[in-house]
Amino acid sequence: MSHTLGIRQAQKQKTRQSLLDAALALLEEQSLSSLGLREVTRAVGVAPTAFYRHFRSIEDLGVALVEEALGSLHPMIRTTVSADGHEQRIARAIELISGHVNAYPAHVRFIARERHGGVQPVREAIRDQLARFGEEVKDELAKDPVSGGWSEDDLLMLANLYVDQMLITASLFLEALEASQEERTRVCQVAERQMRLISIGRDHWLG
Q: Where are the alpha helices (DSSP H) in the chain?
């Protein structure tokens, strides 16, 4: 009996993932607000009623895509920010962002498009994930002796600057995916200089 339940659960999870993958592929050409439930189920080859076994609505599916796109990044972001020294932190951040964009370009495009898109629950889910990143980066920055005497508000402001810059850097790498090696190198250099500028400002911040 438990074996049968296990097979059913595995099949259910497989169908759920297929719906997410199909939606993400369809979203390469359109926004979530224009995506139809029947488009997604037709792409997977299941009946529209099967959709509701996994998601309450297209908006709910969009929120699940946000979790899929950003949820796994939290431990990596914390590890990156905890690196000793500005240069090592910047190098790790660039490596993380570049690797993530190369591995998951559709997810990055989805977040970039829907962050300010027309589906409120998805905007809120992205905002909440970015707020979590900000808090996590703040907690790591607070451990750095350079941050001694900084207020919670100032630490969070700095953390959010880093998070925003990571998003900007991801967009730069996304645009350069099909570019020449020379252009990708230039993007890396620009990203490094922008993050270094934040670090220089941090070193001279008087509060």
A: 2-26, 37-44, 48-51, 58-70, 74-81, 86-103, 105-114, 120-142, 152-175, 181-203
- Cα distance from N-terminal residue to C-terminal residue, the chain: 64
Mapped onto helix, strand or coil, the DSSP state of residue 178 is coil
Reading phi first (left if > 0) and then psi (alpha if -120 to 50, else beta), residue 51 is in alpha
- Going from the C-alpha of 90 to that of each of 77, 93, 144, 188, the distances in angstroms are 12, 5, 15, 11
The C-alpha atoms of residue 89 and residue 97 are separated, in whole angstroms, by 12
pTM over 0.90: no
Question: What is the full per-residue pLDDT of the chain (207 aa) written as tens digits?
Answer: 555 667 778 888 999 999 999 999 999 989 999 999 999 999 999 999 999 999 999 999 999 999 999 988 888 887 787 766 778 888 888 888 989 999 999 999 999 999 998 899 999 999 999 999 999 999 988 888 877 788 999 999 999 998 999 899 999 999 888 888 888 889 889 988 988 888 888 777 766
Query: 207: helix, coil or strand?
Result: coil
Query: Dihedral sign, CA of 9, 11, 14, 19?
Result: negative
Residue showing tokens 């980066």 = 137
